[in-house]
Each structure stands twice: as C-alpha cells, then as structure tokens.
Amino acid sequence: MQSGGSEERTKWQVKKGASYERLVDSAMRQFHDRGYAATRIEDIVAGTGYTAGAFYFHFKNKADCFWHAVEYRQRQRGDWSRLTADLDPATTPLAEILDRVFGHFATTHNGMHHWALVMVDFYNQHRGDPEHQERLTATYARWHAEIVRFVDALQEGGWVNRDRDPDVLATQLFAATEGFRVHAALYDRDPDVMGPALVELLASVLTRCSRHGGS
Q1: How many other C-beta atoms can be found within 10 angstroms of the C-beta atom of residue 65?
Q2: How far apart are CA 25 and CA 7, in angstroms?
Q3: What is the chain's pLDDT, residue by residue, as a tens digit (215 residues)?
Q4: Can you tell me the distance from the alpha carbon of 158 to that of 94, in angstroms, rounded to the nearest whole number?
Q5: Is residue 71 part of a domain?
Q6: Residue 11's domain spans which residues?
Q7: Cβ count within 10 A of residue 8
Q8: Structural contact between residues 65 and 44, judged by C-beta atoms closer than 8 angstroms
Q9: Measured by CB atoms within 10 angstroms of the end CB, which terminus of the chain is less buried, N or C?
C-alpha cells in the first residue's frame, strides 16, 4: 500500500506531465500558426489553463520551449518505418505507402504541415548562435536517421532496389519534402494538388535507375 507521501508525489507527477504536454502542444500550434518570431509566451499559455509561471517551470525561455516542441514532435511520430510491415509490393504500390506515411504525419502532428517554415524562422532569429546551430545539426541527423530506417524497410520489403544508397536517398527525400512544404506554404498551393505531386516525385526518386543500371 502506498504511503500518503507517495500518493502525493504521484499526483504531482501526473499534474506536471499534463501541464507540460498542454504547454508543448500549444507552443507547437502557436509556432506553426503565428511563426516562431511572432509567438509570445502569453500566446503559448493562453487557453491552456496555465500561467507564465507554469511555462517557466518547464522551460527556460521561448527557445528552450521550441527545442522541447521539436523533440515532442519526434516522439509523436514514433517508428514510422514500421508502416511497411506486413505489406507486399505485389499488392501495395510504393505510392500507397508514401500516402500512408504522410497520412500518419498529418494525424500525429494534427495537420501542422508547415513545420519547415518554423525551423527557418527559428534559424533566422538565432542565426550565428553556435549552441542553436549545433542543435539544428543534431536535429537534422536524427530526422535523417528516421528516413534512412524507412528506406531500409522499403529495400527489405522489395519496393526499392538494394543497390541504392539509403543515406543518399534519405537526403534526397528529406530535401524534396521540405522544399515542397515550403513552396506550398509560401504560394498557398492547393494541398489536394501538391500532395499527389510530392508523392509522385518521391516515388520517382526512390525507383529511378541507379548508376549501376538497377531500377
């Protein structure tokens, strides 16, 4: 049987976790909808039921909150390379898998498609800061590794030729996807048009002939 002190600690931990998630969720939405530079602490706490004091309990400042949001988004995505599990290239074309991946992202990120713009905004606000540049580089490495795992899964499943370099393909997929996202946001392009166009491009990158003649 738990002591009263243990029960109190458990309740406090639950409340602490709940306030953290509410604030990070709000921060992600505010950064996405307003932009990083335009978002104030007041905007983040508004509507969460928490105060600025609760914000500073969890985060040192807005930049620290941003990094927590980046890591939280990554945890939300989970191991999306597993979306290929139990599928067969004979019945599930590559384009359908890519559609499933983007559907997974849309669901886990609550429709916040333009996070690349938030990253650019953050970079511009902290340009020249070595600490933040180091963290941006580390973030890229983690995201790149996620895509490499996905490419590995596609190769193991038979959708992508094994003579293609997963690291190179991951770099191409990452850059193409973020470029499309930025283009769509800047020029207010119809997602019903841009989505299929992006899938077609990525499928082409993954299945084009390699230097050694593989397809």
Answers
A1: 24
A2: 27
A3: 455 555 555 654 545 668 999 999 999 999 999 999 999 999 999 989 999 999 999 999 999 999 999 999 999 999 999 999 999 999 999 999 999 999 999 999 998 988 999 999 999 999 999 999 999 999 999 999 999 999 999 999 999 999 999 999 999 999 999 999 999 999 999 888 899 999 999 999 999 864 443 33
A4: 10
A5: no
A6: 1-66
A7: 11
A8: yes
A9: N
124 within a domain of the structure (yes/no): yes
Look at residue 102 and tell me if it is in a domain.
Answer: yes
| 39 and 96 share one domain | no
Residue 95 · residue 200 · CB < 8 Å: yes
Q: Are residues 54 and 94 in the same domain?
A: no
CA nearest neighbour of 163 among 99, 86, 215, 204? 215
Tokens for 62, please give them: 């807005």
